[in-house]
Structure formats: structure tokens, C-alpha cells
Design a protein that fits this description.
Elements lengths: L4 E6 L7 H14 L4 E6 L1 H8 L6 H15 L6 E5 L5 H10 L4 H5 L2 H9 L8 H4 L1 H10 L5 E4 L4 H18 L7 E4 L27 H9 L20 H9 L2 H13 L4 H27 L2 H29 L11
Parallel strand pairs: 1-2, 2-3, 4-5
Helix pairs in contact: 3-13, 4-8, 4-14, 8-9, 10-13, 11-13
Length: about 325
């Protein structure tokens, strides 16, 4: 049977952290056997908010690729590519922008939210407003059928589906409407209890050695009600317990929850038990990453080759789009 095609991507804005591993990469790795997977480092998307200083973009592309491969993405099973090395993404973005109403973009839930959160940056550029159209082009240029998303990203994919429907309505059916593959993952907060985010400085990066991860975990905030060792706590409001839900087996979670509620264990004990489950997951990843760092040129070659492989698919799709829109001026056509 023909495998369904998947496209998903990440912006190269810095090294990846545990939130990326649990929220996306683990799911991507698991899809490699069942689906025809294309995973893109979407560097043009990074420019929508980082356009004033682009010096780190190229290094970040390599760092993310190293994190991907160390986490288990296999270039023999999935295509790893760079968005800007396939310029057909940009042309489809342009053509789609001709038919996408501006109010559709202004109503995207995260648009105004991001503008408010990133006040220190000037986000009045078209690229930031229009990034959902480019996101749609990224998926549609490969006729992506499945997109792995979290529940908070379903609205983004629905906009992609609306864009595909609108194009097909005007020009005939060219694109499938991509379906969401929901990835349900527990909330993974940062070391300070807020959402794990580089901008908050509260992340545990995949590139960090076990010693540094140990130190970060031991300084994580816990239930603020546990002022003293003898105070009972509530594991459901403790960021450390959110990590237990990901890294600790059920019996260990039960031990931590019961011990917290009855004050039979202290927060230090709880964190040590968390490390017993977390370090065996991240240590092999870190070791593989160290090896990949020694041969960054090979990582670059993987990305260049992956981009070359999928560009043929992108050209085929763009040819269909041009034909449908009556702007195909190839000498073999009948214009």
C-alpha cells in the first residue's frame, strides 16, 4: 500500500529542548515506518520574526538537524530538508497569497497573541502576518496528507485545509485537504514552572550533558505550598511531577504522588527519582549528538541531499498549479 505523505517542520531559532523532544520529535520518529515523511527546517519562517539579525540562522539549521538525527530521525527513512533550498515553496506561497483573504490571517489565534508577547520586536511586516500562507505552501507543495499537531495547533491546520479548499474551488482539485494526526503529550513546563521556552531561559536543552541536566533538575521549582520538608504538597500543581508523567514509570509516579501528599518524601527525593527516569533517555541522545558534532559537513550533506530529493516532487506540484491557474508557459503546453 502507498504510504500517506507527512510534512512537518521547525523554525531554526536555537537548539532544541525537552519540550521539542516530547512534544514533537518522539512522535515524528514513531511515524517513520508507517508514513512517507518529509521533515523541513523552515528557515524562511524564522525570518518572519528574526529578520533584524539573521547571523545565527545557518548555525541553528545545523544544530536542529543534529538534534533531529540524535533523537532518532533517520535520513534513510525520512527526508530531512531545508525550506529555502526548495524555492518552489516560495512560488506556491506567492500564488496562494492571491486567493487568501486578509481577514483569515488576522483571525489566527496566535497572531495577536504573538504580537503582544513579542513587543520588543517589530512584527508589523507582511511576512509575519502571512506566515500561515507560507505554512500552507510548505505542506501543500508536497501534497501532504497528514500533519502531526498538538491540540493547540489544530486551528493552524484548519486554516491550511481552508486554503486548499478555496484553491480547489477556484481552479479544480489539485490539493488534498491534510488531516491532523493529534499528538497528545503531557504538559512539560520549564525549570521555573512556566512554559518551557528559550525566551524564558528555563529550558533543558537536548545538547546539555547529564551533569548540567542534573543540576537544572535539582533547582526546579516545586509546589509553593511545601515551604518545609514536613508540609504536604499537591503533585498536580508541581512542575516536577509533570516531568514524572513523561519520564517515570507508573509505579514511580505513584510513589512520588503519595509521598508528596503525605510529606513522606522531600522535594529532593522526588527530583532524584525523576532523574532516574530522565537521564537514561537523554544521555544516549547526548552521546550521539557529540559524535554528530564532529562531522557537521556530513549533516549538511544530508540536508542538501534531502532538499534535492524532494525538489522534484515540488516541481511536479507547481507544474499542476500553474496549469490549473492558466499560467503555464512551457513550450510543450498549448498556450
Amino acid at each position: 500500500m502507498t504510504k500517506k505523505r507527512v510534512f512537518s517542520g521547525m523554525r531554526p531559532t536555537g537548539r532544541l529542548h525537552l519540550g521539542h523532544l516530547i512534544g514533537a520529535l518522539d512522535n515524528w520518529v514513531g511515524m517513520q515506518e508507517e508514513y512517507d515523511c518529509i521533515y523541513g527546517i523552515v528557515d524562511w519562517h524564522a525570518l518572519t520574526s528574526e529578520y533584524q539579525d539573521t547571523r545565527a540562522v545557518q548555525d541553528n539549521v545545523i544544530e536542529i538537524a543534529i538534534d533531529w538525527i540524535a533523537a532518532g530521525l533517520d535520513p534513510e527513512k525520512s527526508v530531512l530538508m531545508i525550506q529555502s533550498l526548495v524555492p518552489e515553496h516560495a512560488e506556491l506561497h506567492l500564488l496562494l497569497s492571491m486567493v487568501v483573504p486578509v481577514p483569515w490571517l488576522e483571525r489566527v489565534p496566535t497572531y495577536k497573541e504573538q504580537v503582544m508577547q513579542l513587543r520588543e520586536k517589530d512584527l508589523s511586516n507582511y511576512g509575519f502576518l502571512g506566515y500561515p500562507v507560507l505554512q500552507a505552501a510548505d505542506i501543500m507543495i508536497y501534497k501532504g496528507e497528514v500533519v502531526p499537531v498538538g491540540e493547540d495547533q489544530v486551528s493552524h491546520l484548519e486554516l491550511v485545509r481552508e486554503i486548499a479548499r478555496r484553491f480547489n474551488h477556484f481552479f479544480g482539485r489539485v490539493f488534498p485537504e491534510p488531516q491532523a494526526k493529534l499528538t497528545t503529550t503531557p504538559r512539560l513546563p520549564g525549570t521555573d514552572g512556566r512554559k518551557m521556552s528559550k525566551s524564558y531561559g528555563n529550558v533543558i536543552q537536548l545538547s546539555e550533558d547529564p551533569g548540567k541536566i542534573h543540576r537544572k533538575v535539582m533547582t526546579m521549582v516545586t509546589d509553593p505550598a511545601r515551604v518545609r520538608r514536613t508540609d504536604p504538597g499537591d503533585p498536580e500543581v508541581c512542575p516536577v511531577f509533570d516531568h514524572h508523567k513523561v519520564f517515570t514509570p507508573p509505579e514511580g509516579q505513584a510513589w512520588a504522588a503519595q509521598g508528596c501528599r503525605t510529606a513522606k518524601i522531600g522535594c529532593i527525593d522526588c527530583k532524584r527519582r525523576l532523574l532516574e527516569g530522565m537521564l537514561p533517555v537523554v544521555e544516549p541522545l547526548h552521546q550521539k549528538r557529540v559524535e554528530l558534532e564532529k562531522d557537521r559537513e556530513s549533516v549538511k550533506e544530508i540536508l542538501v541531499e534531502g532538499s534535492r530529493r524532494v525538489r522534484g516532487r515540488a516541481r511536479e506540484t507547481l507544474g499542476e498549479v500553474r496549469q490549473a491557474m492558466n499560467i503555464n508557459y512551457d513550450r510543450r503546453s498549448q498556450w
